[in-house]
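Supplementary Text 2. Reproducibility record for the structural model of the 88-residue chain.

All settings were left at their defaults, and a single model was retained for analysis rather than an ensemble. We include the record here because the model underlies the residue-level annotations in Supplementary Table 4.
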Amino acid sequence: MKQYDDLLIHYLEEILVFKEYQNKGLGTKLLQELESLVKKQGAEKINLSTTNEKKHQNFYSRLGFEKSDFLVPMLKKTNIVIYIFMQI
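Retained model, structure tokens:
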């Protein structure tokens, strides 16, 4: 969560449900529980990041999410590559 002056916002970066478990109400239940939790913590908004795929946007729209004019996602591509080496 993040506080903006007098506004407390919870940030959510998409939820993922494995294909074999989709269309069983799990994603809906998860988001409903999340919404209940963040409301108890005083958040007034949930800011959700999702892909540009219609099926994802339709899913979230059915649960009351709408396109936001509060924050605009921006992206900058970099050529940074991070290598992690582990000795076993």
